[in-house]
Write a structure and sequence with these properties.
One of its GO terms (molecular function) is sequence-specific DNA binding. This protein is α/β, with parallel strands linked by helices. The chain is built from 9 helices and 13 strands. The strands form 4 sheets. Strands 3, 4, 5, 6, 11, 12 and 13 form a 7-stranded mixed sheet that branches.
């Protein structure tokens, strides 16, 4: 007797809507209208005889039945996508899709990709620098590179390297920093803050300056920007002291406009960069080759 399956197309709609907690965002991902997503989920709920979403106002949240169903649907779709990629000569053969943050791609990955292309010219690379969270393998992503303090619980995680924070500034600004008893007067130093990593200065002071009796200056002082790249550019223009995240930003220190500040050593932090792959099965040989190359490139920085 054959399996009695729910409408398969509606399962994809359910998974996307549950992941985004939004019919609208699911529709944008799948190239549909929100009403089409809603109608497809209505069809699934009718087939099951149970509501899957609580539609309260503009938000949607999973019901208890939806929470129970989601892991089965996610795993089932993942297995179907993986199987299709394994057997089809058209889906992903000799092709790797990588999801990576823009700063990592520009400052670390892309400058090294020529060496991988030299070894494997037959492999077609697709680099995605959007900020969306990759879900394996439903988004067509084979490997993601993400920053975080610990392995991801839902993916195979391979640590590439940890980070360290290094205060940097234009040499002219560094020479005229305010000092007190021969040390930098941090209360009057012009710090550059980055919104996306707003705790970096606190981490550096906890690791280094506090050991010398220094305290983190008031948070409101200094220049505030939204990316690490912009902070380094501002520092190179003499606008203040930035924190370079090493080894990612090591190339920036080769320019004449930026230099480490004397007496301010780099401080290791818990965050690092991880290569993430779908868990539970071995990757295709093209992905395995890219991962081996990636870990080889990162090995000098792993420590």
């Amino acid at each position: 007797m054959g399996l009695r399956l729910p409408p398969l197309a509606s399962l994809r709609l359910f998974e996307a809507a549950a992941r985004h907690a939004s019919f609208k965002q699911a529709a944008e991902e799948l190239g549909l209208t929100p009403s089409a997503v809603s109608h497809g989920i209505d069809t699934l709920e009718t087939w099951l005889g149970a509501p899957l979403f609580d539609r309260s106002g503009r938000a949607v949240t999973l019901t208890a039945a939806g929470e129970d169903l989601l892991p089965y649907v996610s795993e089932g779709l993942s297995m179907i996508a993986t199987g299709a990629h394994r057997v089809s000569p058209l889906l992903g053969a000799r092709r790797i899709r990588i999801s990576v943050a823009p700063t990592f791609a520009r400052r670390w990955l892309v400058p090294r990709l020529g060496r991988f292309r030299g070894r494997h010219p037959e492999i077609e690379l697709h680099v995605d620098t959007s900020h969306r969270q990759a879900v394996f393998p439903l988004d067509g992503v084979d490997l993601a590179i993400r920053m975080g303090p610990a392995p991801w619980p839902s993916a195979r995680s391979e640590l590439l390297f940890r980070e360290a924070l290094q205060p940097v500034a234009h040499p002219d600004l560094a020479a005229r920093l305010p000092r007190l008893d021969g040390r930098i007067d941090w209360a009057r130093a012009p710090l550059i803050h980055v919104a996306t990593v707003e705790h970096d200065w606190a981490a550096w002071f906890d690791g280094e300056a506090s050991a010398a009796g220094e305290a983190l200056p008031p948070k409101g002082r200094g220049l505030h920007v939204d990316t690490v790249d912009l902070a380094l550019e501002a520092a190179a223009q003499g606008l203040g002291i930035a924190l370079a995240r090493l080894p990612l930003c090591a190339d920036a220190l080769a320019s004449p406009g930026l230099a480490p500040i004397a007496g301010c050593p780099p401080v290791p932090v818990r965050t690092g960069y991880w290569a993430l792959l779908p868990s539970g099965h071995e990757p295709r040989r093209e992905i395995a080759a890219f991962l081996r190359w990636l870990k080889g490139e990162a090995a000098p920085f792993l420590g």
